From TrEMBL:
This is Transport permease protein. The lineage of its organism: Bacteria, Pseudomonadati, Pseudomonadota, Acidithiobacillia, Acidithiobacillales. GO terms for molecular function: ABC-type transporter activity. It comes from Acidithiobacillus ferrianus. InterPro entries: ABC2_TM (IPR013525), ABC2_TM_bact-type (IPR047817), ABC_2_transport (IPR000412), ABC_transptNodJ (IPR005981), Nod_factor_ABC_transporter (IPR051784). It is found in: Cell inner membrane.
Length: 258
């Protein structure tokens, strides 16, 4: 593996631009899908369940859950883009094959897709943050630090999703990833309740999952505090991002160039 082969060039931005132009034509339905479900969770659980829960970790439950919903929306949006949309471009539309007929390399295509996943995650998360702020569920002086964290989270989840896409033979394959990876993270990584309420073995398992570290960074930032052990959480997310990128590059290269 040569470093020059795996490092992307400026062509990655051309891939992002191409995806943006396509997405722009479907802006309204895409936005509805990106933050419709998180908004329903915020309203139903934040107000409905929050009426019975009251406060959690010293804040109203709607404030507690809002930051978790922002984090999970990044995961879901970036994962969906890296799975279903990317697989469509790779397999059904054969867009990647057309790109490889240009000066673009596999690393350019991959990096462009990962960046686009991160951008889509940021758009979805910011939309939720705007809505949640109207309910007073997000506030504080550190909100401006959230977008870089969201972008890093989108890179992590987008890279992991593209590993699955490079392995997939059909859309049905993605149900394994959602059932075995996405859903457990959604339920056990601190979106709805503190991780310390889990049994010890589950707490240790949760610490291995990337969504735990996204929540650990975003929840303080969106409630007016600086996160503890921020560099540790950021380091874990970068480790996921780089490892997933290398793995996806190897797998995608074998599939596209065989």
């Amino acid at each position: 593996m040569r470093l020059g082969e795996i490092l992307p060039g400026t062509g990655a931005f051309a891939v992002v631009q191409r995806n943006y132009r396509v997405w722009r034509k479907l802006l309204v339905p895409s936005m509805l899908g990106n933050f419709g479900d998180p908004l329903l969770y915020l309203l139903a659980l934040g107000y409905g369940l929050g009426h019975f829960v009251g406060r959690m970790d010293g804040v109203p439950y709607i404030t507690f859950i809002a930051s978790g919903i922002v984090a999970s929306s990044v995961m879901n949006t970036a994962s969906f883009e890296g799975l279903y949309s990317a697989f469509t471009r790779m397999s059904a539309q054969r867009t990647y094959a057309a790109m490889l007929a240009t000066p673009l390399r596999v690393s350019d295509i991959l990096a462009g897709e990962v960046l686009w996943c991160a951008v889509k995650g940021l758009i979805s998360a910011v939309a939720i943050m705007i809505v949640a702020s109207f309910f007073g569920a997000i506030q504080g002086p550190w909100i401006f630090l959230a977008p870089p964290v969201i972008l890093l989270a989108g890179l992590s989840f987008g890279g992991l999703a593209l590993v699955m896409t490079a392995l997939a033979r059909s859309y049905d394959f993605f149900m394994y990833y959602f059932t075995l990876v996405i859903t457990p993270m959604f339920l056990f990584c601190g979106v709805f309740y503190p991780i310390h309420s889990l049994p010890p073995f589950a707490q240790h398992l949760a610490q291995v999952l990337p969504l735990t570290h996204v929540v650990a960074l975003l929840r303080p930032l969106l409630t007016g505090h600086l996160p503890h052990a921020a560099f540790y959480h950021i380091g874990v997310l970068w480790l996921y991002t780089l490892t997933a990128y290398v793995g996806a590059w190897r797998l995608l290269g074998r599939r596209l160039l065989r």
